[in-house]
Amino acid sequence: MAHQYVYFFGADRAEGNKNMKGILGGKGANLAEMAGLGLPVPPGFTISTEVCDLFYKNRKRIPQEVCKEAEKNLAKLEEVLGRKLGDTKDPLLVSIRSGARASMPGMMDTILNLGLNEKTAAALVAKTGNPRFVYDSFRRFVQMYGDVVLGLRPVKKDDVDPFEAIIEEKKRERGIQRDTDLTADDLRDLVARFKAAIKKQTGHDFPEDPMKQLWGAVGAVFDSWMNDRAISYRKLYDIPETWGTAVNVQAMVFGNMGDDSGTGVAFTRDAATGENVFYGEYLMNAQGEDVVAGIRTPLPIVNLKKDDAKSYAQLERIRHILEKRFTDMMDIEFTIQQGRLFMLQCRVGKRTAFAAIKIAVDMVDEKLISEKEALGRIEPDQLNQLLRPIFDHAEKDAAIKGGRLLARGLNAGPGAATGRIVFNSVDAEAWAKRGEKVILTRIETSPEDIKGMNAAEGILTARGGMTSHAALVARQMGKVCVAGCGELIMDYGRRTMTAKGRTLREGDWISIDGTTGQVIEGKIHTKPSEVLQVLIEKTLDPAKAPVYQTFAKVMKWADKYRTLKIRTNADQPDQSANAVAFGAEGIGLCRTEHMFFGEGKIGPMREMILADTLEQRKVALAKLLPLQRKDFEGIFEVMAGRPVTIRTIDPPLHEFLPHEEREQRHVASEMGISYEKVKERVESLHEFNPMLGLRGCRLGIIYPEITETQARAIFEAAAAIRKRGIGVEPEVMIPLVGHVRELAHQERIVRQTAEAVMKEQGVKFKYLVGTMIEIPRGALTADEIAEVAEFFSFGTNDLTQTTLGVSRDDAGRFLVPYVEKEIYAKDPFEVIDRDGVGQLMRIAVEKGQKTRPSIKLGICGEHGGDPSSIEFCHMIGLNYVSCSPFRVPIARLAAARAALLSGPKAEANHKKAKKARAAKNRSGLKKPVR
Ligand code: ADP
Ligand code: MG
Ligand code: MG
Q1: How far apart are CA 723 and CA 729, in angstroms?
Q2: Mean pLDDT throughout 190-219?
Q3: CA quadruple 375, 381, 382, 386: dihedral positive or negative?
Q4: Which atom of ligand 1 is nearest to the CA of 254?
Q5: Mean of the per-residue pLDDT values for the chain?
Q6: Does residue 860 have an active-site annotation?
Q7: Pairing between β-strand 587-591 and β-strand 643-647 as defined by DSSP bridges
Q8: Which residue of 8, 75, 374, 703 pairs with 360 in a disulfide if CB–CB is 3.0 to 4.6 A?
């Protein structure tokens, strides 16, 4: 048998089905599926996507054998309907519809009412007795054909459509406003004028022969596969050119036959909320895209109950049939011809994140899909929407319509926040204490702003990227943050902020949407998410929180399938408690230095750094010891026996130093030394490249007493907790190790201190000593390091900096263009660079396990909360990932998806994407790399 290029559908049977999108295109495959289900689909046939390829190989002509096959199918269609194309008594009209494998909305145009000419139109008038309907259809046909096939369309964006211009002219002449007021004679005259315009423009008569019309239209659909719109859409969504489009030829049904006819679009569930209700719009006496074109205002679908109860009931039934067959929420198109319903299209519907989650969960309850399938349908980042405070929708829309949108920055910390502008951390705290809601508005933030950030509802910065200090800390705190909003001009001195020519002052209300990056003038009401009200604020009864229940189900399923453990990065008891509420199973990174910015600690810390002698240093450390011990006790208590990884001091010392004279004088008087001395000491600690300077384990090696004090604080806290009968499992982590001897040096101090404390306190507790793998030498010599380390935690922030030789704090200026030029596919500080940084991780895992098969492996860099990076961590066999408290649920889901979907397949996908990118770069479609 010859190869099949054309597939028939209709009359309760079909040669194709929904799994044949590759050759039938999405529209054709689903039309066939619906016909096969016995749904009322106007019959027709699909010319396969393979023909698209042949068309281009055959100098844009349709091969003879395909023409023959199509003509046979046309004959069959005519037989089924008892009408013939071009017949002068009872003519058949068809639509010509494109349909690629992936939906490319609006990319190629549909031609309706094909087969009309002067004779068939007259026949149809005689048959229907409805000349208005006939000439309305005719003028639509000539207009669409003229546009799509003959190329009469506006060239530039501001050009008027030549046909619309003619319609406007006609309406002016007749003194009417609406298209619906045009009479049959008017429409007939429009057909004549359209044809004249075509003749004038192209030099050819409008084709009267329906077969000529048909092949012209089919050719135009194939031709449109390579038009500019289609090409740029494909590029945007990575749709291969080789896929081609199919062409559907389908018998027309008419929604424009009068008030008992109509057309509409609908979703089988609410695409915004996910609610299981029928949702859609329709128009009576209308055709094609009238509903979405906005010429007339369509009615909500429930009204159809009144206009046509029978069709509505039938649609309700079809809605359930389709969901059952496709096991998803569907987007449908339908037409009613004189009280008879016809289905014209269905496809899986687009939806908000909120709806995606709800629908997936509901469909498990309805036994339409399995738990695993549901997890596969929810993108981890979509969970963010369930956790975030939200703006009152109507209020926000009104604000934007009212011109209050000031600027747009990076959506660094999702959620909604509204408050009064303050320009520094001290004010933020003071105002918050008075009960004011504030937005901390800074050019950028630094560690000194932490308290102000904590006090604020949200954080807005003019500079910095998605991994800037503000963004990072905001995510850890779960704060709303819009970062890098370059349009804002801040004047700290005058306490003003200017954007779009408007100046806002300290105390003015502002609203920031960290989900979209929008900055809006004035106050917009917000409310916390249900999930937070239940888990964190504990102000809402879970039984009364449907959104929370949806969330909890997703989490329960995720935990069932994941193999990675999820920990959190937290250094305060309250953060730790939040993380536990979100499901954290331990702390993967407790940064001790963050504690030093807390109440009363920065003073002794500065004294310690500025000390000249060991004795002075010990005095300062003695002040710090009890403060740190208390911090650790608080965390251990909350974590109740879960492992807690505590990193010894890491940042360059200058971050703690007083840089302003006033502060330096204060420290001097505290220490009883001169201001000059302090100033001199601060200057002497200056480093040219502090990120690569005296920091990490180097500090502990130069000043062993710091490590000793920290270890003592940790272990004394552990002992105290143990004595209270609470479990405790500290893991002491030494940062920035590149050589095993660095670790060995620090390990000795830690273990000696542990032994001493256990003896002094008369209790025993388990503890581990391990290291961060965050510089390449550490990864490359991981076998040696594992001789000492009981665990590795990948510090992928520094590992990325040192592997790429890129300073994260300075990368903003070039990393964005890098990603635009596709030098890196993604920002390597957000998504692990698998081929570079990831390779070092693989080496370290392999070497570490060789020396110590039981070695515990985790990640504590920002990547620990990124779904793609989590998948990678799963693939290379880490035991856990650690992320900020508010990302714990996201990580749980990402870990489950990695367990369900990754493995060899994920690896292959990654390689495929990489190859596609490379090919795209080579073909020069993107801007070349300069
Ligand atoms: P798109 O790919 O842009 O969705 P379609 O091929 O679905 O384009 O056509 C657009 C609209 O034209 C449909 O929604 C439907 O209203 C109308 N249409 C297409 N084919 C027919 C037909 N055979 N009978 C009646 N209306 C049709
Ligand atoms: Mg459509
Ligand atoms: Mg580090």
Answers
A1: 13
A2: 94
A3: positive
A4: 25
A5: 90
A6: yes
A7: parallel
A8: 374
Pocket of ligand 1 contains residue 436 by CB under 6 Å: no
pTM value is 0.81
What is the number of the ligand 1 atom nearest to the C-alpha of 263? Answer: 16
Closest C-alpha to ligand 1, atom 26: 288
Which ligand gives the minimal distance to the CA of 249?
A: 1
Is the pLDDT at 298 greater than 90, yes or no?
A: no
d(CA 110, CA 648): 66
Question: Which residues neighbour 625 within 8 Å (Cβ) at sequence distance 6 or greater?
Answer: 709, 712, 713
Report the Cα 192 to chain-centroid distance in Å. Answer: 50
Predicted local confidence at residue 269, as pLDDT:
94
Buried b (16+ CB within 10 A) or exposed e, 576-609: bbbbbbbbbbbbbbbbbbbbbbbeebbbbbbbbb
Residue 800's Cβ-side half-sphere holds a number of Cα atoms within 13 Å equal to 25
Question: Closest ligand 1 atom, CA of 107?
Answer: 3
Q: Which residues contact 344 (CB under 8 A, 6 or more apart)?
A: 31, 41, 42, 250, 253, 333, 334, 335
298 Cα to the center of ligand 1, angstroms: 17
pLDDT at residue 449, as a whole number: 84
Pick the residue whose CA is nearest to atom 17 on ligand 1: 288
Rounded distance, CA 484 to CA 466, Å? 8
**Is the Cβ atom of 263 under 6 angstroms away from ligand 1?**
yes
Determine whether the shortest distance from the Cβ of 333 to ligand 1 is under 6 A.
yes
Output phi, psi for 171, to 5 deg.
-65, -35
How close is the Cα of 319 to the center of ligand 3, in Å? Answer: 54
pLDDT of residue 908: 59
d(CA 391, CA 412): 17
Query: Which pLDDT does position 534 carry in this prediction?
Result: 93
Q: Active-site residue 873, yes or no?
A: no
CB 545 within 8 A of CB 534: yes
CA distance 328 to 847: 46
- pLDDT tens, 67-122? 999 999 999 999 999 999 999 999 999 999 999 988 776 557 789 999 999 999 99
Tell me how far the alpha carbon of residue 635 lies from the centroid of ligand 3, in angstroms: 21
State the average pLDDT over residues 894-904: 85
Burial 878-912 (b: 16+ CB within 10 A, else e): bbbbbbbbbbbbbbbbbbbbbbbebeeebeeebee
- Beta strands at 279-284 and 262-267: parallel, antiparallel or unpaired: antiparallel
CA of 698 relative to ligand 3 center, distance in Å: 12
Which of 485, 860, 873, 883 does the annotation list as catalytic? 860
Instruction: Supply the residue whose CA is at minimum distance from atom 19 of ligand 1.
Output: 95
Q: Which ligand is nearest to the CA of 652?
A: 3
The CB of 288 under 6 Å from ligand 1? The reply is yes
Strands 480-483 and 458-461: parallel
pLDDT tens per residue across span 408-433: 998 877 789 999 999 999 999 999 99
